[in-house]
Design goal:
This protein is an alpha/beta fold. The protein has two domains: about 180 residues, Rossmann fold (3-Layer(aba) Sandwich); about 140 residues, Phosphofructokinase domain (Rossmann fold, 3-Layer(aba) Sandwich), CATH 3.40.50.460. About 40% of the residues lie in helices and about 20% in strands. The strands form four sheets. Strands 3-2-1-4-5-14-15 form a seven-stranded mixed sheet, with helices on both faces. β4, α4 and β5 form a beta-alpha-beta unit. The longest helix is centred in the middle third of the chain and has 22 residues. The protein is elongated, with a radius of gyration of 22 Å. The termini are far apart. The protein binds 6-O-phosphono-beta-D-fructofuranose.
Amino acid sequence: MRIGILTAGGDCPGLNAVIRAIVRSAIDRGDEAVGILRGYQGLAQSDYMELDQRTVAGILPLGGTILRTSSFEPLTENAVDRVAFAFERDNLDAVVAIGGEHTMEITRMLHEEEGLPLIGVPKTIDNDIVGTDFTFGFDTAVHVVMEAIDRLHTTAQSHDRLMVVEVMGRNAGWIALHGGLAGGADGILIPEVDTPVEELAEAVTRRHERGKDFSIIVVAEGANLAFANGEVRQVRVNEETDEYGYERLGGIGSALATELERATGYEARTVVLGHVQRGGTPTAHDRILATRYGAEAYELAREGRFGRMVALHGSEVTSVPLDEVRGIKTVDLELLGIAKRFFA
Ligand code: F6P
């Protein structure tokens, strides 16, 4: 078998671990793997790199992706035929597409409508892909947030300050909730729940009145700035959309800090963690999950079970039809309830 591997969409810690696991599994069973560069663009343009034992040596701890990535969309680029023809032209028996929710959608469409032998592997620091309990990259991002909150505590405490930490999370608040819980945040704002500024300010004031002179608030970039009068505002970098057609989010941290400073009278500062959450070496958890995903993707290819996405259910790595991977997986609000016990 000759299996192609591509990475598409935003990068994420653990991508290289998946690539390595597929390549090593293939070599182990006498199969061949080939790297497709820059996502589906590489498939449309026959832009490949050799993948053997030597090329994947030492990549397990590396963040990013040795295959590069892009937002190339076969449909909008009028490249569906070129992508479909690549299988015949380049002797590909299967392609594993590692990507986020958008990539899973493209992969499903190419499988369903063109009958292409495709398998999906879910990646994103956001952990918002339906069909799997966890995506690799998420644990690493949560660790970055936790460490940042730990570090911010010392300055917040020394200066009696309010610190607002803006984290990633466009549609779902997984990073904010888990990172905030792990770091002991005093408030967590997520896209799933609109928390009025006044309510947050009251909690901060109550906390300060009972002797705590600092507070750390974590806010997901996709959370809304909400007010008690029902006004709800989304904060964006500008009115433009990004290469995927999504709004360019960012700035909620600073907007919230301004509102909280006004409402509480406490001096506030903002920290935007941004792409730091997506970079660097994956945690042990993410390396293992990514390796298990890669091994499972190889098995699916070997068995000819196409049109599926590998998934984690509980502690078991399994797979689900790509057709079931639709929409956004939002956070467990029960966990937010537990986090709230520590807020005021
Ligand atoms: O999906 C992962 C993610 O990091 C989101 O949390 C964030 O909104 C987005 O990607 C940022 O994308 P870009 O790298 O294009 O700015």
